[in-house]
Amino acid sequence: MKTIIEPFKVKVVEPIKMTTRNEREGYLKDAAYNLFLLKAENVIIDLLTDSGTGAMSAEQWSALMRGDESYAGSKSFYRFEAVVRDIFGFEQVIPTHQGRAAERILFSVMCRKGSIVPNNTHFDTTRANIEYLGAEADEQFWWRTAGLDGEHPASESDLLSLQVAALFRCLSICRERLLH
Ligand SMILES: Cc1ncc(COP(=O)(O)O)c(C=O)c1O
C-alpha cells in the first residue's frame, strides 16, 4: 500500500532552542569554527552525524524492560546473537555499545602500521582509529578510478569495480613507497 503519511505516531517531543543568524555566527566564531567545540544546545539542525536523532519505537522502549542485565550469559545477548546471525549470517557476534568502540576493535585486528584503508569518505572517528594505529585512511575518491562517474556512491552492484579500483590504488601507493 502506498504510504501517504509517516505510518507512526510520535509520542515524545524535545524542544529545540531557536537562534538568530547573528547568534549562530557568534557561536561559530567562539568555537573557532570547530564544530566539535559548539554546544549542541546552540544547534538547530545537527548535520554532523545522524547519531542521537532517531526516535525509539514503542516496541524498542518496552524491550528495555525485558532486558536481562546479568553480568554474564544474559538472555538478551543470546536473543541478540540469534537475530544478528539470522540477518547477517556471521558466526562471531561481538556487541559494542558505540560505533567508535566497534571501529577501535575492528581496526586493531584488521590494520597495523603501514596498512591502507580506502573509503570514499571516512567518518571522523573512523579516520582517528585508523591513524592511531599508524595506518593510512585513504580518501582519494579511489572508486572514481573504476570508471564510476563520482555522482553515485558505491553500491553493491559496483563491488567488483570497487575491488579492482582498490587493488590498483594499493598497487600505485606501494609503487610510490618503493620509489621514495
Ligand atoms: C562509521 C561510523 N563510526 C562511528 C560512528 C559514531 O557512532 P558512535 O557515536 O556510536 O560512536 C558513526 C555514526 O554515524 C559511523 O557512521
Concise overview:
The protein has 180 residues and is mostly helical.
Description of the molecule:
Strand 1 (116-118), helix 5 (124-132) and strand 2 (136-138) form a beta-alpha-beta unit. The protein is mainly alpha-helical. A two-stranded parallel ribbon has the order 1-2. The relative contact order is 0.06. It has six helices and two strands. The mean pLDDT is 85. The longest helix has 21 residues, at 159-179. Among the domains are: 9-55, no CATH class; 113-179, no CATH class. The chain starts with 20 loop residues before the first helix and ends with a helix. The site of pyridoxal-5'-phosphate has 10 residues, from helix 4 and helix 5.
Summarize the helices and strands and which ones pair or pack.
Layout: H1 21-30, H2 58-66, H3 75-88, H4 99-110, E1 116-118, H5 124-132, E2 136-138, H6 159-179
Parallel strand pairs: 1-2
Helix pairs in contact: 4-5
The chain binds pyridoxal-5'-phosphate.
Pyridoxal-5'-phosphate binds near residues 99, 103 and 125.
Give the bound compounds. Answer: pyridoxal-5'-phosphate
**Poorly predicted sequence stretches spanning 5 or more consecutive residues:** none
* H/E series: HHHHEHEH
Termini separation comes to 61 Å
- Overall shape: extended
- The count of strands amounts to 2
Structural class from helices and strands? mainly alpha
Largest sheet: 2 strands, parallel
Count of helical regions: 6
Q: Tell me the strand percentage band.
A: under 5%
